[in-house]
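Recall that a protein's primary structure is simply its ordered list of amino acids. Everything else, from secondary elements to tertiary packing, is in principle encoded there. The following example makes that idea concrete.
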Amino acid sequence: MTYLNRALAFHDAVVGIDSIYRASFDEPRLIPVHPEFAKWPDEKAWVIVREGHGAIGLRDALTPAERKTGKIPWSRGRFLKDELDQMIQQKNIVWFTKRHTKRMNRRSSTS
């Protein structure tokens, strides 16, 4: 039980740190891509942000001219269906408005 409790405490700490860090992104930022992950020198990426939540993903920072030369656009993150649709329609979107989602009531009723 000691190992289990320590593992759960570690998990909770990592989740808490992650959510605090994500929330610190209140607007999109252009950041350098780490050299080990970059496909070309000085590659940059946009941090994609959802209002009221923070960072939700990354996407390329390609210009139309770079796309024409054959560089492949990319994105990674956790997006809602309508956000993904918006990203497909608007190639350069990096900001999403706050979402109000309903939570399911998980209480079971007894009869």
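Residues 104-111 have pLDDT under 50 and may be disordered. Residues 31 and 45 are 5 Å apart (CA to CA).
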